[in-house]
Structures are given as structure tokens and as C-alpha cells.
Amino acid sequence: FYHMDLYGSKERFDIFPEELSGRGDRSLGDTRRESALSSEKVQRPQEVGYDLEKEVAELAKMYGLDEDREKELELLQGHLEKVESRWPPARTEKAGSQGSVCNSSKSSSSVKDPSQSTKQQRLPDEASQGENQSKARADDEAESNIWSRGGLSSGGMSDEWNSQAVSEEEEEEEEAADIFCSTCKIPIRAFDKLFGEHKDHEVAQLPSAVESEKEEIHKNMCKLEEQIAQMENVASHLEEIFITVEENFGRQEQNFEVHYNDAVQVLAQKYEEQLEALGEEKRQKLEALYEQLVNCGKHLDTCKELTDETQELFLENDKAEFMKTLFFFPYNYRLEEFLKKEVDLELSTLADFEERVIDVSEVEKLMNSINAIPAPCAPVINPQAPNAATGTSLRVCWSLFSDDTVECYQLCYKPVSNERHSDEQAEHTLKVKETYCTISDLVPNTQYEFWVSALNASGISPPSERAVHVTAPSPPTIKSRKIRSCENAALVCWESRDINPVDSYTVELSKLTDEENDDVITESIVGIPNCEVLIHLQPTQKYRVCVRAQNLGGSSERSEPVLIHTTGTCFYLNEDTAHPLLAILDDGFTISCDELENPECDLPVYDNSFTRCIAILGSLIPFPGKHYWEVEVEEDTEYRTGVAFENTPRHGHLGANNSSWCMRHIITPSRHKYEFLHSGMTPDIRITIPPRRIGILLDYENCRLSFFNADIAQHLHTFNSHFQHYVHPCFALETPGILRIHTGIATPPWTAL
After folding, report:
1. What angle is formed at CA 721 by the lines to CA 718 and CA 722, rounded to 5 degrees?
2. What is the spatial distance between Cα 109 and Cα 116, in angstroms, rounded to a whole number?
3. pLDDT at site 77
4. Residue spans of beta strands (DSSP E) within 500-622
5. Can you give the residue ranges of the B30.2/SPRY domain (predicted)?
6. Cβ pair 134, 21 in contact under 8 A
7. Domain 477-566: which topology?
């Protein structure tokens, strides 16, 4: 035997070159072993058996075991147990293969193990399913390692082979699955996907499959929760139905009892009435019979009495007395009268009673009314919901807080009027099946009074309490002539088209660009109490502005939109301040005057109009910051232009007071004279180039009012004054001519002083 140190040394590899492919890294050997299992398991079974027999013979000769066949048999048996434990499906085939080797080595080995001789008989048919060559070599190398340990007995070597086989089997069984087979719905190893029975199956990563299944479980849990909620709702509804059935039963039982008692009472009353009538008929019959019986008795008595008298007369023997008595007046008269009187021998009444038919129609009506429904109770109109109305329609809803059966509803309404004769307003009536109704063709922003009744076969309910609803307002009208704007703000004014006041207004802004939709609302200002609003905007933009009116009924439609440009300051001319001789052309920014012979003319003058100076004011500029506009003039026209306060005197000239600042142009025989007037004073300034386009820059923050010759970008003059209030642009003509005002112009850079 070689020394034990050679077991794991390099020299051992020289001695056993067959182990070079099987030693080294344990995991690498396992991987190769698994690859060999899938690729060469069934390819060369006969070579595996041949190589194993040859190597066993060489090892036995090398280690001196050719005389000890029992150890050889134990070694081969341990090897067989190892192979059988590692490859259960081919257990019989491996045992048969090794049994063949044992049989070729020593014939006496068949006596040692009877089961092994059975395996030897199955060798020819099952050798094709043995192990692959590489695995057999690896097992033999492990076997040679055991033989190299000279101090170990044959039984110890067998136990070590068994423990090593068990440990390798446990390692393979404990190898975790890392993918999921979607076809078989089980976790598998990646090796099984590449070479095993799951090769053609659809697989997924195990974590993703777990997440997917968890999501599916979560969805199922949500569905179960929904079903639980639905079943709970159904159970709650069933409980309510159960209670309702009990209540309805009690109500119907009470109703039946009441109707039954009424029917019994009516029947008893009918019985008493019929019994009383029958007794009365009996009394009348008996009285008639008795009276007839009495009369008959009287007649019979009279008849007997006359018979007795006649018989006595007949028996009278005295003839004279007989004749005297026969023609005696009382007797003769009485007898004649009695004989003339006819005797009524018929009964005055019959013994049979009249057949009486009891009238049970009332009872039948009562019995039929047991299942009849009562007349419904009065409905209740719900309060008006927000945004439940338009300018011409209203939606009215009501409720019936009872279990009464209703066939239809009758809805009545009329407009509410503050006048004394409001009851004379026309009432309108509608019949509807549902508990709501939409009424159209109404007047915008108008209050209407509604009341409703419920109807069924038994009758109509009392009317509900009257409720007042209001229609939405009409769209406002924006006063485009009164809109003022600058580079960062705009003042929008509008007016309401409704007689009744509204609650508030909403302004909607849409920033217009070439890429965006014009209908996109970029900003909304809500809760505006009056008819104007100051809006902060962005410079050099274009906006579309609409206004809506709001009240309890809802929102009106959008007003007609207006466009606002924030390029520069925009304002309009105030016609109420214009002198009667001053005309405003169609563009709204050109003023003209044809004659000035009598400035103080007799034309109608408004309260806010200029009376002496032929002037006009522009709209108020209520925005802080800088504002720029231009005035186009003619060289031979005398004019004034500048700014003025709202309260500047209308009977004076612009620039002649402390509430106005203006530039004046007059023509003298020698030159064009320009004055910059405030409180009637002007600096001595000579302008060599008469301006044809005057630029005016109003700077609230720096308290400046500057004038420029816009054609040549020349600064003419600047007023430095603290403006206590916002000012109006002002314009005046002193000779016939025209002035053209240009607004919405961006402030030129050369205006910076």
C-alpha cells in the first residue's frame, strides 16, 4: 500500500491518472456528473460494465487482493449499493451489470449472495440501461480512495461507501428549485428545464411566479371581500324585508280586523232593520185582520138582529099590527139599507209575508275594501340641489316617507312674484310617474314655487308644502369697450342680463397658443360679487376671457368671449366725457372736429362732458407700473394730449389746472409752438422737428409722465409729479382736424430715461 499522505497529494494523481477528471472542485464534479447523466446515460452501458470489470481486476492485482475474493465481493457489493441509491430508476440494471462482473471474476461469489445471482440472470436484457462511463469512473476513483487506506477493514470501507452515497443523495435532494413550470404548476430546477422532462414547458422565474400568484390571491381576496360585502348587504336587505313583512302583516291584520268589525256591524244593523220591518208587517197584517174580523162581527150581529125582528113580525097574528109594523119606517129603512149594503167577503190581507231581499252591497264594498289600498300621504319636496338648474329648466325631486302605493304624482308650479296679486299668476300642472321631474321653458334667474300630490285608486293625497326653486342666470354680457389692460393685468367689466340679482360671478381664462386647444381653461376666478374684476396676467400673451353668473340654481352658460392681449396698455375713449362738437369714428380710437366757430354751442351736453375745451377722456388706467400709448397727429392741427384726474374741471382747458398734465401744439405766424402745461405753466422748450407720432409714457411708480417723438425716438419733456390717484388719458382739438390713438403697444426700449 502507498503511504496515506499520497491520498491527497499530487503524486497520487500521477499514480491514478483516471481521477484527474473527477477530483478537484466538488461542485464542478457534481455539475459534470449531472451533465453526463442527461447526455450519456443511455449511450454506452456495455462500455461502463467492461471498464468497471477491468479496473476492478487491475486494482485487485495492484493491492494484492487477487487471493482475497471475499473482500473483492464486498467492495463490489458496496459499489452496487452506492449506484443503486444514487440512481433509483436504473437500480435493477446497475445491480445486474455489477453482478455480471462478479460472476466473471469468481464463480464462488454466487453462493455468497442469492439475490446477486438473480440480478446476474437479468444482465443480458438490462445492460443497455446502465450508468454512463464518466459516472462509473468517478465512482471507481472514490472506490480506489477507500482501498488506498490500508488500515481500514473491508466492512469499514463498505460503510464509508454507503455514507458517502447517502450524503451525495441528500445534497442532490436539498438542491433548491429556482424556476416555476407554468405548464405543470410546480417549482423545478433550471437543469430540469434544460435537460429534463420540462424542456418544452413554459417556465417563469420563481420570485415573479410567486408575486404573480400573490397578486392573483389578492384579487381573489378582494373578490371574496366584495362578495362578503354584497352578501352582507343582501342579508341586511333581507332583514329589512323580514321586518317589513312583519309590519305589513300587522298592518294588514289590523286593517282586516277593522273592516271585518265594520262588516259585522253593518250586517247586524241590516239584520235589526229587516227584523223590525218584518215585525211591523206582522203588526199591520194582524191589525187589518182584526179590524175585518170586528166588522164581520158587527155585520153578523146586525143581520141576526134584523132576522129576529123579521121572524117576530112574521109570527104576528094580528094582521093590522103586522102591516103596521111591516111598513114602520125605522124597521123598513134599516132593513133596506142593510140589504143594499154589499158584504166584503175577501180577506183584507194575506197570510204570506213579502219576500225580503237583504241589501249586502255595502257589506260587499266593505269586504272588498279589506284588500284595497288607502289614499297616500302627502309627499315632501327635497331642497334644491346645487347645479340642478339651467337658465330655462329646473329639476325637482321629492320623496314619499311612507309605504303607500302611488300610481302617479301631480306636480304644480308657478313663478314667484313680489307683487300683491301674486296669486293671479298662472299655475301649471304636470302628471309624472317618477319622484322627479325636469321642467323646461322657464325664465332665467327666476324663482318658481312647486307643490306635489300623490295619487292612487283610493284618491289623492294632500299637497306637499310649497318649495321655492330658482333657475340659473342668463349669460352675462362683457362690455368690450370698457376693458382695460396692460402688460401684466386687465380690468374686465360686464353687465347682467337678468332682472333679479345673482349671487356671484366666475371669470374663466384661456391662454391661447398655436399648440393648445382654445377651450382649455387655464385659470378661473370665482366668487366675484360685482360686475368687474382686476386680473393679473402674464406679459406678451393672448387670453380669451368668459364670464359666468352663479346663483343657487347653478351656473349660467358662458358669455361671449373677448380677447385680451398683454402686449401693452389698452384703453377706450369715454364717450360720456366728449364735447358735443367732438366725434368718435367707427374704429373707436379716432376723434375729429369739423368746426370750431362757436365752441360754446347750444348742443346737448351730458353731465360729465367737457363744455369749453373740445376734449375727451380715455378709460381710467388703474394698473401700477408703466403704460405707453401713442397719438398720431397732423402737422397743421392744434391739439392737446396728456393725462388728467377723474375730477378735472369740465368747463376748463386741459393743462390749465392742477388736475391735468398735457402737451399742447399751437401754430404761430413764426413757428410751431409746443407747450407742456400743468396748472397753466409750461417750461420754455423749443422743438425743431415737429412730431407726427407722439409717444406718451406714464410711470406711476417713478411719478413721471414723459412725451416722445416716436418717429425719431426723441425725448421731448417729462413731468415729475406724484399722482395721488389713477389718471385718464385725455385728448383735445383746438382746430379742425383728427387725432388717432394707438394702444396695446409694447413700451419701446428707448423710453428708458
Report:
1. 145
2. 9
3. 60
4. 504-511, 523-528, 532-536, 542-551, 554-555, 562-565, 583-584, 590-593, 615-617
5. 551-750
6. yes
7. Immunoglobulin-like (2.60.40)
